[in-house]
Amino acid sequence: MTIPIPSGTQVWLASGHTDMRKGFDGLALLVQETLKRDPHGGHLFVFRGRSGGLIKVLWHDGQGMCLFAKRLERGRFIWPQAVDGAVTITPAQLGYLLQGIDWRHPQRTWRPEAVG
């Protein structure tokens, strides 16, 4: 999944787990009441279900509210340990997260060799 993230956009991971039955309105309410953020401000808010294999991303693109979902066929999405609040990550880290890669410690697949 690729989301065209404008520069200056922040990505917020909602700590803990979220009821994945929630849709646009329920998640926007969580952003307002729990995260104390504006769901219409253009930032991305990412929520993970209890099992860890499903996430939802809420984003207002300036024209309307968007809701993206991704379910991993194998593995779990890496999530922060904090119970309350949110953690901010970079758009690049979100890319890793969406691929099922540990966004906290991404590993390069190759290393440049010295020219000698």
> How are helices and strands ordered from N to C?
EHEEEEH
How many β strands by DSSP?
A: 5
What is the first-to-last residue Cα distance?
A: 41 Å
- Percent strand: 15-25%
How many DSSP helices?
Answer: 2
- Average pLDDT reading: 87
Shape by Cα distribution:
globular
Major β-sheet annotation: 5 strands, mixed
Q: Which residue ranges are poorly predicted, with pLDDT under 50 across at least 5 consecutive positions?
A: none
Helical amount among residues, as a percent range?
10-25%
Strands of the widest sheet, in order across it, are: 4-3-2-1-5
Rg measurement, Å:
15 Å
| Helix/sheet category | alpha+beta
Feature tags:
116 residues; 5-stranded mixed beta sheet; 2 helices; globular
